[in-house]
Design goal:
This protein is of the alpha/beta class. It has one domain: 3-Layer(aba) Sandwich (Collagenase (Catalytic Domain)). It is 53% helix and 19% strand. It has helices at residues 21-35, 37-41, 53-64, 80-89, 103-109, 115-130, 138-154; strands at residues 3-9, 44-51, 72-76, 94-102. Helix 1 packs across helix 7 and helix 6 (115-130) crosses helix 7. It is globular.
Amino acid sequence: MMIKADVLVNIHAWRNYISNPNVYLRNKLKKAEKKVPIFKRNKLKFTILLSGDIKIKKLNKKFRKKNKTTDVLSFPFYEKDMLHKIIRKEKENIYLGDIIINLSEIIKQSKEKNFYSVFDKIWIHGLTHLLGYRHKSNQDFSAMQKLENKILKSI
């Protein structure tokens, strides 16, 4: 596989929704890598921590100075320009960074929608941040959304 996620679960309640998160994500990523060029050409890896309110609030406060919960936090290993230089050079075993996802927020957001569609949208959003995308300007947001939609459609 060209893109791989290590999934860690620190809130057991996640298993009530996704019994085997590693297999779930591996299957999604396998589909995505067939359609998304950056996944096809490079050996990429990232970590996802499936967590809850308490952990994500602590991390949000520590790293973003926001004392509140959120649905997802991303900790990219590289800035976009640096990542693309490395991708041009290496192609092999590029560690993208870490994503933390909050179960409580996924449950809240999935009241009107399917749990899995909300979960997929959230982890994909986190992944695009690891790939260097931001949503500070409309142009960045638009490019980010385009990639997110491409990945979503592929899975």
